[in-house]
Amino acid sequence: QVQLVESGGGLVQPGGSLTLSCSFSGDFFSLYLMGWYRQGPGNQRELLATILGSGKTNYADSVKDRFTITRNNAQKTVTLQMSSVKSEDTAVYYCNADWKATSRQYWGRGTQVTVSA
Which residues contact 14 (CB under 8 A, 6 or more apart)? Predict the structure, then answer.
């Protein structure tokens, strides 16, 4: 069974930076497509970025050039570096692990990010 635990959320000022981390417990980490999603108040959950075990990344237009996703297969962690944050980045951020070949998908419980002066 896979468990994901997010950390690093908090209050950040507009224009500032924040780094979120996701710790993966379980097997076959490198085979999972790892992703970060967010859900703001009254909004649907939004895909922000994904990263394959090979390191290949993909980003939503809303965060491209501001957010960076990375992973460490040895430590089984995924990070989301957020920069130039805006008030609309306020949301609960979720880590996701998706092994498409087996239809296994897991979610963390989320970490709150609030962008405010």
Answer: 85, 86, 87, 115, 116, 117
Identify the bridge partners of residue 18 per DSSP, sorted by sequence position. 82
Helix (H) / strand (E) element for 113: namely strand 111-115
> Cα–Cα distance between 79 and 95 in angstroms, integer?
9
- Residue-wise pLDDT for 80-103, tens only, equals 999 999 999 999 999 999 998 888
pLDDT at 100: 84
Helix ranges (H only) for the chain are: none
Contacts of 56 (CB under 8 A, 6+ apart): none
Instruction: Encode 91-102: b = buried (16+ Cβ within 10 Å), e = exposed.
Output: bbbbbbbbeeee
Q: What is the pLDDT of residues 104-113, one digit of tens each?
A: 999 999 999 9
